[in-house]
């Protein structure tokens, strides 16, 4: 979902959506007098929950950030995301932003994917329908077009990029390497069981005792994927990939928890990336960051003319586990 992944980058780990406001009294906030319904807000929060857990696992909600609970950060991020999008949408008419037939086809597909991701029962409890989600996705596409118009033609200073490249090369090169791995996989546990985690720890104990990785894999792994394979971006949760990028050749990870279960990995081979390939990758990242800085500054200027008011009674009644 190209419009949504953009917003994820703009507000740290936020994935953003926007929907049409409703007139219900069960609203979370108002923006320039227009009410943002509980259902609309819950879609934003659903994506926040998924984003947080992809990066920090399901235990992320026990953490806090500078004294603020992870749940409160996610809830506030959802409000920030809504405000960001609404500010952009208010400019769409003046910018002559329109959606074409290709956009509408993508909106239909993405709406169905999001609705299925939420699940029919959960969507009903959140107070959101497929039609609501279609509005959410449609506005995210408009938001993307506003972003593209604001950031088109951005040019970079080569001296500044060289400084950026030199600063980030050593820390980022590993993510451009070709890394061949093997895995031992265990499914996620249910709320009242730790059986799979216990099995993962037992397997780890055997590896630490010197038992061959493939032998342990044959005994424990509950996945058909037992052959070596190349690590690719997006294959696993961010925290897992970060760990794998920094394991040495021949290194074995600890027990790593992801959204789909527990893993133990072994790095079999590392082919170092060509310096020029890394440089081009970092150049693309640098341009992306500069575009986001420009867009964020413009969007904050738009927001300065908006009035945003939170309905604390409804906001405080919402839990991250509701979505």
What is the global morphology? globular
Helix content: 40-55%
Number of separate strands: 9
Mean pLDDT over the full residue set: 89
Main sheet strand line-up: 6-5-8-7
What proportion of the residues form beta strands (DSSP E)?
A: 5-15%
Q: List the uncertain runs.
A: 12-24
**CA-based gyration radius:** 22 Å
Give the N-to-C terminal Cα separation: 20 Å
Question: What class do helices, strands and sheet pairing give?
Answer: alpha+beta
Written as H for each helix and E for each strand, in order along the chain, the element string is: HEEHEEHHHHHEHHEHEEHEH
Ordered list of secondary-structure elements with their pairings:
Blueprint: H1 2-10, E1 27-31, E2 34-37, H2 38-56, E3 64-65, E4 68-69, H3 70-89, H4 101-118, H5 120-126, H6 130-151, H7 158-172, E5 178-187, H8 195-208, H9 213-220, E6 229-230, H10 238-245, E7 256-258, E8 261-271, H11 275-303, E9 308-310, H12 312-315
Antiparallel strand pairs: 1-2, 1-9, 3-4, 5-6, 5-8, 7-8
Helix pairs in contact: 1-6, 2-3, 3-11, 4-6, 7-11, 8-9
Please sum up the structure shown:
This protein is an alpha+beta fold and 323 residues long.
Protein described:
- This protein has helices spanning 2-10, 38-56, 70-89, 101-118, 120-126, 130-151, 158-172, 195-208, 213-220, 238-245, 275-303, 312-315; strands spanning 27-31, 34-37, 64-65, 68-69, 178-187, 229-230, 256-258, 261-271, 308-310.
- It is globular.
- By secondary structure, the chain is of the alpha+beta class.
- 54% of the residues lie in helices and 13% in strands.
- Helix 3 crosses helix 11, helix 4 (101-118) packs across helix 6 (130-151) and helix 7 crosses helix 11 (275-303).
- Strand 1 and strand 2 form a beta hairpin.
- It contains twelve helices and nine strands.
- A four-stranded antiparallel beta sheet has the order 6-5-8-7, sandwiched between helices. Strands 2-1-9 form a three-stranded antiparallel beta sheet.
- Residues 12-24 have low confidence and may be disordered.
